[in-house]
């Protein structure tokens, strides 16, 4: 059916809240069967092996891992009974004892890797729990699609990861299956279990919401998604986008290149105001192309504000300030001695260039050149 499996929802809610109302055996201290198995002291039942023998001899024995149904409850014990009634439920005291033993927890990670390999997955980072496809993933995915009882095993593994303090492992494994079922569509027969069961084993509420939103984004048709209210999922997406934009804005403010650009822009605005106050007298002074300045400063910011680009932008900024300073000095004066001298030097330079290219045609040409030089940037 297209509806949600509410029995699964209730079961997983009970798991996430620590099995409220569950009464453990009064002989809790004496009945650490799961811990004894992981210490390599007893074999799993019925007709089982010691855990070290299992981890070594079954590493690539996919046929045995598929057909034997007794070992999974011992490798990944829970605080509830499973199909193997010879396996013992996990106790709170056992959980604490598991976490205190480095030897036991190393075996637990090896058991997790064993099952991942069986499903065509590789644990590439033991610290974070990051996963990827194994080289033989196509063959193993085919087996996973064909035998649906493996979905129950995966749910058990996810629950046990949460009990043992590996909630970050849960997130990566669920995300892996959501990607394969909804995005890459390689595991169509696992899709329903991934949404009804795997997704809601994640104990971290924040991470679970992220995964539900991820599933909703890739589910088709999206209108048939029944694992979360659509209006809240829409708002969650908007909030996430705003949060990312806010974070980028903060990073931008902390960027030294941006601060440099802001201060330059303020100087430019001040300079423009001063030029406007100077009136007609400023028109007689050389002007800087504001677009060129901004373009050079933009290059400075984009490239981190260092190297030759930064020097060039700083030089341009100094030139602009010098020009503004000159503008202040000539208020009320049409032309000062410095300007005349500057024109004269530029006229001489121009005449020298003209000698190379040919003589000037008339005194009018010289006058035009002199007038034009007064309007050029130094």
UniProtKB/TrEMBL annotation:
UniProt region (Disordered), positions on chain: 244-378
UniProt key word Protein transport: no
Assigned GO CC terms: membrane
The Opioid growth factor receptor (OGFr) conserved domain, residue ranges: 28-233
GO molecular function, one term: opioid growth factor receptor activity
Pfam families: OGFr_N (PF04664)
Keywords: Receptor
Basic and acidic residues: bias regions: 247-280, 289-298
Nucleotidyltransferase among keywords: no
Similarity comment text for this entry: Belongs to the opioid growth factor receptor family.
Protein name (Swiss-Prot/TrEMBL): Opioid growth factor receptor
Organism: Opisthocomus hoazin (Hoatzin)
